[in-house]
Amino acid sequence: MVGVTGGIAAYKAVGVIRGFVLAGHDVHVVATDAALRFVGKPTLEAISRNIVHTDLYEGVAAVRHVAIGQAADLVVVAPATANTIAKLAAGLADDLLGNTVLATTAPLVIAPAMHTEMWHNAATAANIATLRARGVTIVGPASGQLTGSDSGVGRLAEPEQIVREALAVAVPQDLAGRRILVTAGGTREAIDPVRFIGNRSSGLQGASLAAAALSRGATVTLIAANIEVAAPAGATLVTVGSTAELAEAVASHAKLADVIIMAAAVADYRPRDVADGKIKKENQGDGLTLELVKNPDILAGLGHGRHGDEIVVGFAAETETDDAALLALGRQKITRKGADYLVLNRVGWTEGFTQAHNTVLMLDKAGDIVMEASGSKLSVAHRILDTLA
Ligand code: CTP
Fold this sequence. Notes:
It is a single chain. With 389 residues, the protein is of the alpha/beta class. It folds into 2 domains: 2-170, Flavin prenyltransferase-like (Rossmann fold), CATH 3.40.50.1950; 179-388, 3-Layer(aba) Sandwich (Rossmann fold). It has helices at residues 13-22, 41-48, 64-71, 82-90, 96-103, 116-120, 122-133, 159-170, 204-215, 243-254, 298-304, 323-337, 377-388, and strands at residues 2-4, 29-31, 75-80, 108-112, 137-138, 142-145, 151-155, 179-185, 189-192, 195-197, 219-225, 236-240, 259-262, 269-271, 292-294, 311-318, 341-346, 357-364, 369-376. α3 packs across α5 (96-103), α4 (82-90) packs across α7 (122-133) and α9 crosses α13. The model has no long low-confidence stretch (mean pLDDT 94).
């Protein structure tokens, strides 16, 4: 939950909300009436992708004044004005935000923004000390140009910093110091300058893995092949198109990685010849035959050619509908690829690719099932990382 209060920095809350959304989180905004004088409700709704709540007396049947706080895993108030900070310190509940904060058991993070004199005022300092003593995390304020011509301490911390520090509070930093390389999306093999052979992978599972690893403190490189989703802020992003480009990018980044997760759907074959110009119908008969040659197996190369004690994780997308046969395919695949773990999921016209949810099981080298998960791709990503951690 992101609380937005009424200061000029409220427009920057849009960046904070966007940061959480791009990191894969479901964001619910509670804005004070004063906040809505600085930033429009439609903006907050569009960016958060959820209805924005302001009124304590709206939706009373849903007991909203406690429901939002109870449902939250993390509560962030950005910007927090001097007035809101005073209210939070006193435990006042005269608006929806105050009720929400009192009703939550989730960690609370506040990002103050105000003029320097207000920040240094003894009342504000005492309120901040009270909140800190209660375990509230304070991000910023930063020093710099303020609203007028003056400058000093009181600027809202940058949205990226607020998102990063808030997630660090909510999520265990069990991957701190680990370097994780994730591939995502689907490779495309050119037929001619305008056409390609590709697959339906959107890159959401790979991007969610990158986002989840970042939020747990890892240093993440995301090699993205034609992804249709946003890459999480904070990852080193390498964009590739074809399998050859993916192979080259993996080769240059894998040596620095402690964990390599091959979530990308890699084209197994590519056209032997790529036409220089667009293939024209009038030059063909009633049919068109493309000769395909096999691409290198990147995962097998990583699995069988180790540079150290890195963990190599493969994905296997299978259309097999029988559970036992699916498992058997996964066991053969992990052996063939030499991977340490294989995340097995069923794909089909309506399963796996392009979907928001995923159902997977994870095999270890011995072929034993070490994890089973079903849910949003972000929650599945966390379960995979739990196993690796
Ligand atoms: N993979 C790879 N290089 C390839 C093909 C696949 O690195 N040329 C990786 C994928 O990133 C994935 C795993 O291997 O992590 C399994 O991909 P999948 O397409 O399920 O397996 P294939 O080896 O292509 O076998 P098949 O298509 O015959 O099931």
